[in-house]
Amino acid sequence: MFQDEGTSSITSSPLQFFTMMSLSPKLGSPYPWLRELKSEERGLYLIHLLLTCANHVAVGSLDRANLALDQISHLASPDGDTMQRIAAYFAEALADRILKTWPGLYKAFNSTKIPMVSEEILVKKLFFEMFPFLKVVFVLTNQAIVEAMEGEKMIHIIDLNANETAQWLALLQVLSVRPEGPPHLRITGVHPQKEILDQMARRLTNEAEKLDIPFQFNSVISRLEDLDMEKLRVKTGEALAINSVLQLHNLLGYDNEALQKPSPSAAKNVNGVQYSRYPHLNQTTLSELLDKDMVNGCSPSPDSVSSSALSQANATKIDSFLNGLWSLTPKVMVVTEQDSNHNGTTVMERLLEALHTYAAIFDCLESNMSRTSLERLKLEKMLFGEEIKNIIACEGAERKERHEKHENWSQRFDVAGFRQVPLSYYGMLQARSLLQGYGCGGYRMKEENGCVMICWQDRPLFSVSAWRCCK
């Protein structure tokens, strides 16, 4: 069936049928010809099927979407290779979106589900322990705070998502050996769960006592969107720092959705997804597969970033929140966000962008963890799978994972009265040393537009930036 390497793959593999096939029951099940696909060809066809399915979902052709999902089910697998695994979670997300078109059915299917908050916390802790991304964030953030607070005797830190004690344990160690002596430190932790805050308070208080640092921990039990700034109790004479790690994008779900108009691309039918050329398939990672422009006319474009920024121009919730933070006059505010564009107005925009982002993340998992690892399965299903589902299947306030690029956040902070400041050079040296210690060449860090991008290979995954009030 397959010709020599020099022959066009269009005429030498089942890929030649992609643009000519109609998804119909006539293909039969379990589609025996699919088993003849090589790994790279199977990956490309899965991308084709996901885009085809998303197009059908977008125009309400649910019967055709169902047929596409049926084919995906014979190729995707949560314990297969990288593309099989990612396709399984995107297919689940598309199916969940379809199910939501019948609210009664959707509610009946989910009525007995018990939210496992403890499991969510454990899987996030697992991600922190297994990978260096958040460790790098904490190193950069702590060093920015230390340098901004040099000489200050009363320091107040507001943690907008107080669920990881490790960051502040490390900061206590640094402050304990300050040449001018340790300051009086107050940390205000914001989190919706009292037990998480209580646990953090105990550990930090015990450590501060050992290091002989005057310390106070204030708990604010609240979701970020419901936060009352008065409860943060910022006092005169305190030098204030604000820390936000992967939180602010959640507030974009409370913007006026009526202001967001679907782009013309939402009305594209399946014929809009074209595969006009297939270079020789020798990619070793899903990221490379996507970055080779396999999907002609469907790769994410810079325009989608700017359109997302425009759609958020009248974002009232995030604007008022940032204005509230500005009114507290912090000496430094360090913000970490996913550096992706998952806040497009159409499901097709979000699916294309998310494929690229999670391709890099799943490649990272493939390079660092065994396919049979239970920890890997938990991360993929309970953390990244849930993120994918929220990005693809949800709308309105229910859609929390509204990740945007740093340039979008930069515009918002500027409007709110913040000025970006460079991150610590010493902090970046520490962070690079930490990444090198992992012994994996895929982790990278680069400066871009005044912030630090933490990458897997060449794909930025997280941005870290520091800001000051501009009076």
Q: How would you briefly describe this protein structure?
A:
This protein is α/β, with parallel strands linked by helices and 471 residues long. It has helices at residues 39-58, 62-73, 82-99, 103-110, 117-130, 133-148, 166-176, 194-211, 286-291, 302-311, 316-327, 347-368, 374-393, 406-416, 425-436, and strands at residues 154-159, 184-191, 215-221, 239-245, 332-338, 418-421, 443-448, 451-456, 459-469. Residues 199-231 are annotated as: Leucine repeat II (LRII).
How would you sum up this structure, described in words?
The termini are far apart. Mean pLDDT is 82; it is low at 1-29, 256-284 and 293-314. The longest helix is centred in the last third of the chain and has 22 residues, at 347-368. The chain folds into 2 domains: 14-114 and 257-300 and 344-398, no CATH class; 118-254 and 312-339 and 403-469, 3-Layer(aba) Sandwich (Rossmann fold), CATH 3.40.50. Helix 7 links the parallel strand 1 and strand 2 (184-191). The chain is built from 15 helices and 9 strands. It has helices at residues 39-58, 62-73, 82-99, 103-110, 117-130, 133-148, 166-176, 194-211, 286-291, 302-311, 316-327, 347-368, 374-393, 406-416, 425-436, and strands at 154-159, 184-191, 215-221, 239-245, 332-338, 418-421, 443-448, 451-456, 459-469. Helix 6 packs antiparallel against helix 15 and helix 11 (316-327) crosses helix 14. It is an alpha/beta fold and 471 residues long. Residues 393-468 are annotated as: SAW. It comes from Cucumis melo var. makuwa (Oriental melon). It is found in: Nucleus. This is Scarecrow-like protein 3 isoform X1. A motif (VHIID) lies at residues 155-159.
